[in-house]
Amino acid sequence: MKKILTLREQYLLDKRKNKIKIIAIQLAVLILFFGLWELLAQTGAIDPFFTSSPSRMLKTLKTLAGQDLFKHIGTTLLECICGFIIATVAGTVIAILLWWSSTLRKVTEPYIVVLNSLPKIALGPVIIIWMGAGYGAIITMTVLICIIVTIMSVLAGFMECDEDKILLMRAMGANKFQILFKLLLPSSIPNLISVLKINVGLSWVGVIMGEYLVSSAGLGYLIIYGGQVFKLDLVMASTLILCLLAALMYFSVALVEKHVKKSR
Amino acid sequence: MEILKIDNVSLIYQTDEAETHALNDVNLSIEDGEFVAIIGPSGCGKTTILTLISGLMKPTSGAIYLDGKVIDKPVGDIGYMLQRDHLFPWRTILSNALLGPELQKKKTPETVAYVNELIEKYGLGEFKKAYPRQLSGGMRQRAALIRTLAYRPKILLLDEPFSALDYQTRLAVCDDVHRIIKSEKKTAVLVTHDISEAISLADRIVVLSARPATVKKIYEPGIEGTPLKRREDKSFSRWFDTIYKDIST
Fold it and tell me: What pLDDT shows up at residue B187?
């Protein structure tokens, strides 16, 4: 009995060691990357005018923090979250409508397929003219990029639902509303979460694309502006913040997923 | 007393590929409290009869009466049990069992008490708060039966409810289901391709012909007792032979 216990302990210990090893290597890669970058820039092997360097990025961030960095971060974050929520909610509602009416589903199918393959940035000029050069246009761009994928994945999830389960509910006298709320939506939760994960990535694409087109604030604006005046420090620093924000949003969704999985 | 009457029912259904004549003038009368098995060659339209009884499909001609009233749409008087239990994984056993009353807006304290009583009576009391994945295949099928009984259907339709289980479990669950249905005094129609299952469970066995299916023979083996007891009966193998010949010719 004791031997089994120690084997078990050994197993758990090895597992923990392995986990620590992975994290340590991950951190090492990150430090090595920035360290090498800094070193090459300091020694003049690469020209920091073109490549910037971690220390110059930090200096830029410090200066910006005293000015309006947080306004830019706030603007981009707000646009991104608005677009993300609108696209996810509206996309799910549209998917429900398409599930409800098979006629509507069949009629709209080719249009959705075409809209899905259309590069949404092509609609940029139209969006600016219709929505004006501001938040509206950027959020619209984000929504357009996310919504089609949302509709398609949520609908696919509904259509995959077991026919026998639907038959069972109908035999019990269930109406369409009850089938939707008591069967399809609850059974689609894992699918909805993977849609959220996809949308986190896509909404950042939409926001930055929108800000490239029109904006007077936001991280996308900082990047474009930095590029135009050849301030690579600004471009790199803004990109770094973007990375951090995107990671943050992804982990929030992952947290939601963990919570939902636990409660099921 | 007659509870279900299938009166000259024919069914022709259309698919893109072809027109299929599934049922031809099927006639059957089922008494209250009776356990009837429908058996026939595979693909003869056994399941179709259940779909018609549940009102999810309408016959091309003829009619089906439940308690003297024509069935033309699902009204929640029918309990369906399928090959797989189809318990919802996000609901506990109790909440799964309450699905029917909930859908029919009959989740009264009286119904909840009744469902609780069923769960206790049939040995799932300690699993009330458990989720389906925590139960064995046999227990899950028992829970599915309780879910079906919960809204007090007038008739139970069993569509090969044991065929997804392994042999040992199948025999045990067969006994379980028979005991529960008899003690709740329910009428049941079982569709199966397994001859010994039909003989061990049913009071009356309806043999269908190949497609288009029509009633070929009706037998009353008259063997009493639980399914396991019936399998040991002297006449069991004789009945098996008779029905086997009917199906294969």
Answer: 92
Minimum distance, in Å, between the CA of residue A257 and any CA atom of chain B:
15
pLDDT for the residue A155: 94
Query: What CA–CA distance (Å, rounded) separates B150 from B114?
Result: 8
CATH code assigned to B2-77+154-248 = 3.40.50.300
Q: Which of B79, B86, B89 sits opposite A164 (nearest CB)?
A: B86
Tens-digit pLDDT profile for residues B36-64: 999 988 777 888 899 999 988 889 999 99
3-state helix, strand, coil split of chain B in percent (to 5) is 40, 25, 35
Cβ distance A173 to B80 less than 8 Å, yes or no, reads no
Give B190's strand partners. B37, B158
Digit-coded pLDDT (tens) for B224-238: 888 888 888 888 888
Q: What are phi and psi of B171, to 5 degrees?
A: -65, -40
Residues in chain B: 249
**In B36-136, which ranges are continuous DSSP H helix?**
46-53, 93-97, 99-103, 109-121
CB contact under 8 A, B80 and A264: no
Kindly list the domain boundaries of chain A, sorted by start residue.
2-46, 56-262
Per-residue pLDDT at B226: 85
Closest CA of chain B from A163, distance in Å: 10
Predicted complex ipTM exceeds 0.95? no
| The CATH number of the domain covering residues in A56-262 | 1.10.3720.10
Name B5's bridge partners. Answer: B29, B65
Handedness of CA B50, B54, B59, B62 (dihedral sign): positive
Q: How many alpha carbons fall within 13 Å on the CB side of residue A136?
A: 8
- Does A171 contact B103 at a Cβ distance shorter than 8 Å? no
Under an 8 A CB cutoff, do B88 and A189 touch?
Answer: no
CA distance B57 to B71: 10
Predicted TM-score of the model (pTM): 0.84
Angle between helices A102-117 and A135-159 (to 10 degrees): 130
Q: Do B56 and A170 touch (CB under 8 A)?
A: yes
Interface of A with B in 137-176 (CB under 8 A): 162, 164-165, 167-174
Rounded to whole angstroms, the Cα distance separating A43 from A17 reads 37
Task: Give the whole-angstrom CA distance, residue B206 versus residue A40.
Answer: 87
Compute, in degrees rounded to 10, the torsion defined by CA atoms B16, B18, B24, B29: -30
Distance CA B241, CA B244 (A): 5
Report chain B residues whose CB lies below 8 A from the CB of A164. 82, 84, 86
On whether the CB atoms of residues A140 and A204 are closer than 8 A, the answer is: no
Please report, for chain B, the start and end positions of each structural domain, with discontinuous segments joined by +.
2-77+154-248, 87-153
pLDDT of residue A264: 64
